[in-house]
Amino acid sequence: MLTTLWTTAVIVALLAAFFAFRTIYIIRKYGPPIRRIFEESPLFAPTEGVPHPASEEVEFSTADGLTLRGSYMRAASAKPKGLIVFCHEFLSDRWSGVAYWEFLQQDGFDIFAFDFRSHGTSDKDPAYAPRHWVTGYELADLEAATEYLRTRPGADGLPIGLFGISRGGGASIGVAARDRAIRCVVSDGAFGTHGTMLTYMKKWMLLVVGEKWYYKILPAWYLAIIRDRVLAGVERDFGCRFTRLERSIHRLSPRPILMIHGGRDSYIRPDIAREFFECAREPREFWLVKGARHNACLESAGDEYRERVRAFFRTHLAG
Does 73 have pLDDT greater than 90? Predict the structure, then answer.
């Protein structure tokens, strides 16, 4: 009996030592490729726009003392149905969203669009170089915007909905999860950090690990440990915290979300977007726009895009 227990203990200890050694090896070997994904920006051109003639230019402050700049557009109707906050994509600015919200303004919604820190005309943050992944800084900027709107005469008391593109969509999900006063969210091209990384790790890791048999026995939780260990180092070096949006989207319920994604998105594949969407609870809606690339769903779907978004906000914000 004692011999059997001793043999079992030795085997367990050897396996633990083996996996510990392999984990250190994989982190050292695979860490740099993961870091590069966070260090390098994607090669796509952000949408450009021009200032809207009906805008009122405003300034507001973040909790850490930066001045952000935005524009308030009043609804075409005398009495607004609600207030929609537009959140632009990475490397863009608030005027990139005119095509996304102008039809909503005509439909009777007040619109507020602003530039995230280090974008557009907002202050540059010397301590933070923006990433295309959502961090706590983007959440802080959007929270500062909603706080400003709650004290703005004429806007205070209006129900608020969020509409974000790509990283702006992720920021919208992250803030709505914290702020129960947000009524609803529309995201276009949004993606989670941790789930997206895990998907690509599963795809690319075999090239680094080498032994196919070993790769096949690795459970998801083991890969998640490696991912989180590398992310902790990236966060320390970049001075930011990446938001776990899979948890955020799960906490939205019972507030509804409409998640839009391009069927030919090669940056965030549709299966990654669908897996992220599955973290959400009802009420929820997923619309895959056939033939659309990343951040090109409006361009591809046109009137159907506008009608779906308009109907969503009519039902869940104006209603």
Answer: yes
